[in-house]
Automatic annotation (TrEMBL):
InterPro entries: GLR_AS (IPR011767), Glutaredoxin (IPR002109), Glutaredoxin_subgr (IPR014025), GRX_bact (IPR011900), Thioredoxin-like_sf (IPR036249)
GO cellular component terms attached to this protein's record: cytoplasm
Entries under PANTHER family matching the protein: GLUTAREDOXIN 2, GLUTAREDOXIN-1-RELATED
Stretches assigned to the Glutaredoxin domain: 4-64
Coiled-coil stretches: none
Protein name: Glutaredoxin
GO biological process, one term: cell redox homeostasis
Taxonomic superkingdom: Bacteria
Gene Ontology MF, one: glutathione disulfide oxidoreductase activity
Pfam families: Glutaredoxin
Assigned protein family: Belongs to the glutaredoxin family.
Record key words, sorted: Cytoplasm, Disulfide bond, Electron transport, Redox-active center, Transport
Biological function: Has a glutathione-disulfide oxidoreductase activity in the presence of NADPH and glutathione reductase. Reduces low molecular weight disulfides and proteins.
Amino acid sequence: MAMIEVYTKFLCPYCTRAKRLLDGKGAAYREIDVTMDRDGFDAMVGRAGGRRTVPQIFIDGRHIGGSDDLAALDAAGGLDPLLGKA
């Protein structure tokens, strides 16, 4: 089973969309809410190569990107193999 981490903020529609896609795949993930967590936000920015928007998604430590990146990966058929569903 893949280890998935999703950095989010409160009331973020892109975060909701990404989580909905993962939920639809039956994928378990760890949500890291950085709304009021400066250290968590700084850690996310560091891991995401300077990207400051949410969500930022990591699968098995690999940076996937944001919600649009996750959706594009799924549309291209690349998400299921990362989730172990190939």
